[in-house]
Design brief:
By secondary structure, the protein is an alpha+beta fold. Helices cover 31% and strands 31% of the residues. Strands 8, 9, 10, 11, 12 and 13 form a six-stranded antiparallel beta sheet that branches.
Length: 268
């Protein structure tokens, strides 16, 4: 956000939506929104809540970087540009109420449900669909459920699955190149309408909040599992991902977060 004077600029905007990790505000042009990244952290469908100071700043920068690279390989996304430390200008979309989870390694709920040791490599990538409903605990659903209840069409489902595989291939290589194993991750998609015609594009964010990222050598978790499992060192893990991606020169990430903390204390 832009900090000018003592008036909080967000107070002059119309809030469209507030989620667990982000707030959406009316954008400067029709069809645009401003996406604000919060420091709030939640887990287990918001049963566990907390704050990771500086998380929003880091996720904003990481997601900007990843979405820019994905656009470069032809993945359509809602991202337009990063505005400042915590905000992005994005295209307004109609969110498809399905979370697409891509799994390369057994971890988290998959390990728990099937009794398979966490860290077991999968012989093939798995794509799972979850219906977005916090009250129901975001239940696992099949493509038959999605088509039956009209949450997405067959063509949209095909487009989402195709993009998910392409994103996985690209990100697996990107992270492997900096010594990080892409275990699994979550994607969200949205519709952009042109009269009666719509198309599917990638939306939301891609950051350590929605990815499991393990150091290839040590197995150290560099993602939100540090919060879920009370491991501590959450912001340091997010900083490490940003550093390895080349987003901050050595020491700059700490300086940025210090500046952000200072501005917060001053209420600007």
């Amino acid at each position: 956000m832009t900090f000018q004077g003592k008036t909080h600029p967000m107070a002059r905007r119309r809030q469209i939506y507030e989620g667990k990790a982000k707030i959406l505000y009316e954008g400067p042009e029709p069809g645009t929104l401003i996406q604000y990244f919060k420091d709030d952290a939640t887990a287990f469908n918001a049963q566990k809540k907390g704050t990771i100071n500086g998380k929003g700043v880091l996720n904003n920068r990481i997601s900007e970087h990843v979405f820019t690279l994905l656009a470069g390989i032809g993945i359509p996304t809602h991202f337009i540009r990063r505005l400042n430390m915590r905000e992005q200008l994005i295209r307004q979309v109609e969110i498809v109420p399905i979370e697409v989870v891509v799994r390369n390694v057994v971890a988290g709920s998959l390990a728990k449900k099937l009794g398979i040791e966490e860290g077991t490599p999968l012989p093939r990538t798995i794509i799972e669909y979850y219906y977005k409903d916090d009250a129901l605990g975001d239940p696992l659903v099949t493509d038959e459920h999605i088509l039956c209840f009209g949450w997405a069409s067959q063509e949209e489902l095909h487009d989402m699955a195709d993009m998910a595989i392409r994103v996985n291939d690209f990100l697996s290589g990107l992270f492997a190149g900096i010594g990080i194993r892409l275990v699994d991750f979550k994607l969200e998609f949205g519709r952009i309408w042109d009269n009666d015609y719509s198309r599917i594009i990638l939306a939301d964010e891609i950051s350590p909040d929605g990815c499991r990222l393990w150091d290839m050598t040590t197995g150290e978790k560099l993602d939100k599992d540090r919060f879920r499992r009370d491991l501590g060192g959450e912001v340091e893990a997010y900083q490490e991902v940003a550093r390895r991606l080349g987003l901050f020169p050595e020491g700059e990430d700490s300086a940025v977060l210090d500046l952000e903390s200072h501005r917060k204390r001053r209420g600007k």
